[in-house]
Write a structure and sequence with these properties.
With about 300 residues, the protein is of the alpha/beta class. Helix content is about 50%, strand content about 10%. Strands 2-3-1-4-5 form a five-stranded parallel β-sheet. Bound molecules: thymidine-5'-triphosphate (TTP) and magnesium ion (MG).
Length: about 300
């Protein structure tokens, strides 16, 4: 099984323009912590190679072994333009969590983007307001996005791995930046959001950390076609230029690395231009890679 797995993973690498993060195990470790033996043995039974044992020197003293302390899960965030296929990427993880016969079903928590609450906050569709009149509503909308994102980052979990659609970072580095650059936010509004953001990412009590970024890299033309096809009602107002600008901001941040550095975590770049059906198959095999990199931390 391990051999077959490696073959599939290599196939994924070959089909990606740049697949760097998962292979760079040393970097993946930067924000992580140890996984307990229950989960490790599950992954062993799943036959993942190279599972590292917990070092004796890092074990708690005997009298603390049974103390339950909440741990921040190993956190993977999935980034990419609107329509890049982030939700498609999450599907294999969702299927795994729902399949109780799968030995890894209790390893991974999937956190979908809170777009539902953006579309209905006590009866108000904030996303719609933002697209209809961005100058008036961008600050309000991005304030709420920021809140829901930090809620997702910091909620406690009993599972050792968390896979999230988007993050607090892309909301700030791509969307807020883009709205400001496009003249949809005043200097003062941008400053208020930025101050909030800086406070949140440095607040020690919030334990906001990311271990791995997966960037689904699409041409803006592809993202545009997918958005037109899926017909999310609020998004018919999105012009192509908006996606192009968002694309450039993702690229500055995650590929060119010219802005918003240092990166919070290593980046895995995946060519997400192929058809979504093709990508679904590739993402299924990538699931094993991601789990393995979490275990190897
Ligand atoms: P995305 O976060 O890109 O999610 P998606 O479901 O469109 O992506 P995918 O197809 O890859 O699964 O955007 C959701 C909507 O919210 C989209 O219309 C863009 C908008 N949005 C903002 O306006 N500001 C933000 O900060 C974020 C994160 C999203
Ligand atoms: Mg989505």
């Amino acid at each position: 099984m391990a051999t077959k797995f490696r073959f599939v993973a290599q196939h994924v690498f070959d089909n990606s323009r740049n697949f760097s993060g998962v292979a760079q195990k040393g970097q993946v470790l930067s924000h992580s912590r140890l996984m307990d033996n229950t989960y490790k043995s599950k992954l062993h039974s799943f036959n993942l190679p190279c599972v590292r044992e917990i070092s004796d020197s890092l074990k708690k003293p005997d009298n603390m072994q049974n103390t339950v302390t909440p741990k921040r899960p190993f956190t993977v965030v999935v980034e990419g333009n609107i329509g890049s296929g982030k939700t498609t990427f999450l599907r294999p993880y969702m299927a795994t969590t729902m399949d109780s016969t799968n030995p890894t079903s209790d390893l991974v928590e999937v956190v979908e983007e809170p777009v539902g609450s953006w579309r209905n906050l006590q009866g108000t569709n904030l996303l719609k307001l933002m697209y209809e009149d961005p100058k008036r509503w961008s600050l309000m909308f991005q304030t709420y996005v920021q809140l829901t994102m930090i809620q997702h980052h910091t909620k406690s979990s009993i599972k050792p791995i968390r896979v999230m659609e988007r993050s607090l970072l892309s909301a700030r580095y791509c969307f807020v930046e883009n709205l400001y650059n496009g003249g949809n936010m005043t200097d003062a509004e941008y400053a208020v959001l930025s101050e909030w953001f800086n406070f949140l990412i440095t607040c020690p009590q919030l334990d906001f950390k990311i271990d791995q970024i997966v960037y689904l890299r699409t041409d803006p033309e592809v993202a545009y076609e997918r958005i037109k096809k899926r017909k999310r009602p609020e998004e018919h107002l999105i012009p192509f230029s908006y996606l192009k600008d968002l694309h450039e901001l993702h690229e500055d941040w995650l590929v060119r690395k010219t802005k918003f550095q240092p990166l919070a975590a290593p980046v895995t770049v995946i060519d997400a231009n192929p058809d979504l059906d093709v990508l679904s198959e590739r993402y299924k095999s990538l699931e094993h890679q991601i789990l393995q990199s979490a275990v190897n931390k």
